[in-house]
Design goal:
The protein is α+β, with helices and mostly antiparallel strands. It folds into two domains: 223 residues, Alpha-Beta Complex (Creatine Amidinohydrolase); 56 residues. The protein is 32% helix and 32% strand. The protein contains seven helices and 15 strands. A hairpin with a 2-residue loop joins strand 3 and strand 4. Helix 1 runs antiparallel to helix 2 and helix 3 packs antiparallel against helix 4. The longest helix has 22 residues. The radius of gyration is 18 Å and the shape is globular.
Length: 287
Amino acid sequence: MEYDDYIQSGKIASKARQEGYKMIEEGLELRKLADYLEDLIRGEGAQIGFPVNLSINNEAAHFTPAPDTDLKFQQGDLVKLDLGAEINGCLADTAVTKEVTTDKWTNLIKATDEALENAIKKVRVGAITSEIGREIENTIKKYGFNPVYNLTGHTLEKYVLHAGTSFPNYDDGSRVRLYPGMTFAIEPFATTGKGKVKGLEFGNIMICLKEDSEESLKILRKVSRGLPFSMRDAARSIENYDYVIREAQKKKYIYFYPVLKENKGEMVAQTEHSIYLREDGPVVTTL
């Protein structure tokens, strides 16, 4: 059943998130952590919902390590670990923030943790998305920070990670009401800055935009299953992957996700859970 698949993918994503949180430490290679967690998700009987994101400091989202990088976590890094699992198209999306060896940004992390807790308390059939956003903004501002205004949570549909309805991190005036069977991710982002991010350089994450008869592009579609995939995925599956990716981009068959960074280099924290809304209330699948 679909509900059971959402529950199971959530359990697997939660296990991977908790394991990853424990492993993040100074000197660990980002690529080794991402590969380990993606293998863990597959080993538990799911597929990855998207590449493991390891966004650091002012990076809010959309960075995953390249196949050949030796980039390591450093003291003081503020790491957003964001990952997903998928079973029969049913997705779970969850994130946590960890500061490496220091405690300068404890309150920033607490702001997103508490904002998510308070937002979930507002979830019910008939609730309005802007009410949830208001709760997130009020909680984050209580700590003296700003929400990231141009990042949102999102509905989850089969094989579609960002589907339809957005869940803002502030009261944007939206009037979308929640309904039974709705599945979505709420993800507060808090920043020491003014609350805007922009897309900059390529973060090694892509998605196929359309299909083509060319064999290499068929392989890309098979690798991705219509979901975001990484350069590491391509490197494992395709000979001369660099050339294949370049050609696919030239023909506009794939989209390159840019790393989303706070405009002025300010710090960003994130916390996220996925939720299945039943008539009798929310089920947080990624606890």
